[in-house]
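FORM 12-B: Structure-to-Sequence Request
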């Protein structure tokens, strides 16, 4: 019987023959990683499920979970670094820096607007409805414009 070699990786021993074993060999165990600000986060000592939505979560459950996660973030010493990280990547899921996915999207838009040239955003009108409705609207717009028939233009 052949002896099976294992490699100690971040997720535990993996058979040396698998491609994931070669990948795991390059990743040090979590305890040896130097993550910087992430190691000092208040969320490291708690349950990570409070920061990420499970499948088919009800609205009230989500509100309670998000409120609990935000309470952890309120006292976090690295809250600002966490938020900047989430906005820079951008992180699409979870509570980061005390903000939900939608709140981070709003913050990102706000920052882009503040970093702009100071001009108002360009608003492009769109028409919603059936082709018949669009034809009706065009007819109404033409009816409201003054007729130019019979007027001469001096050159």
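FORM 12-B RESPONSE
SEQUENCE OUT:
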């Amino acid at each position: 019987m052949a002896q099976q070699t294992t490699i100690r990786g971040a997720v535990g021993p993996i058979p040396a023959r698998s491609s994931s074993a070669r990948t795991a060999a390059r990743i040090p165990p979590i305890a040896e990683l130097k993550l910087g600000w992430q190691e000092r986060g208040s969320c490291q000592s708690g349950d990570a499920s409070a920061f990420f939505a499970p499948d088919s979560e009800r609205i009230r459950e989500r509100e309670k979970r998000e409120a609990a996660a935000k309470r952890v973030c309120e006292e976090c010493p690295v809250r600002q670094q966490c938020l900047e990280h989430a906005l820079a990547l951008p992180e699409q899921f979870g509570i980061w820096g005390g903000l939900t996915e939608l709140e981070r999207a709003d913050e990102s838009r706000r920052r882009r607007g503040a970093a702009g040239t100071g001009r108002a955003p360009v608003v492009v009108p769109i028409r919603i409805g059936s082709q018949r409705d669009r034809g009706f609207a065009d007819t109404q717009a033409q009816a409201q414009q003054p007729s130019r028939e019979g007027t001469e233009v001096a050159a």
